[in-house]
Amino acid sequence: MLGLLLAPLAAAQTATVTFDEGWAGWSGPQGSGGATAIEPTGGHPGAHAHTVFNNFGITFSTDAHAAFLGDYGGATSVTIGIDVRVESIAMLGTPVPRTLVLDLRSYSLAQNGYPWTSVWYPLALLESGQDWARYTVTFDPNAAALPAGWGGSGAEDPVTFEPRLPDGVTFADVLAQVESVAFTTLEPGMFYGFADFDLRIDNLHVARVADPVFADGFEAN
């Protein structure tokens, strides 16, 4: 007798920016404080982006790479990550740590004069002399409440004055309208002095995993 076997096939969409073919819609710090340039070797592995910059903080972002943008709600799980090597972060020659934050931004949900509404997650504490390391976070984009460890921005708590999501806006609302993705050392609600940054990034990665798709198969009994 032949019995029906349903085999689950995971549906996933992934993309990785390795810098071997340029910026691929991403950008890094540029201006009077320094520059970011793609170097063909020394990455993790291969090409990578190298930033030497003096400012309150540094940000790498995209509003053009389609794989990182749009409605995340079609996935049951999303993973976003980045590889980082820190040569140094210092103020007046003294090493200082900085938090690396993943910030998922929606301009469409912006309110009350804020440039965007976002949900954000502290990926790592960056310190001088750290070798290449991969930092990732995995989350359910359909969750209404902020998952553990996540924060929101786009409004201010009237008591603590800390950043939070605007009234009526959920985690899933923001993830349904992601219009910019940023890796930044500027944590929402924090204030910083000027620092000298010398660090390298590689392998900007996103993976969206959807519900399993079942394929028909047969098992002999």
Q: What key attributes describe this structure?
A:
221 residues; mainly beta; Jelly Rolls; six-stranded antiparallel beta sheet; disordered C terminus
Description:
- The protein is mainly beta.
- It has one domain (13-211): Jelly Rolls, CATH 2.60.120.
- Helix content is 2%, strand content 51%.
- It has 1 helix and 17 strands.
- Strands 2, 4, 5, 7, 8, 11 and 16 form a 7-stranded antiparallel β-sheet that branches. The chain has a 6-stranded antiparallel β-sheet with strand order 3-6-15-9-10-12. It has a two-stranded antiparallel ribbon with strand order 1-17.
- The radius of gyration is 20 Å and the shape is globular.
- Mean pLDDT is 92; it is low at 1-9 and 214-221.
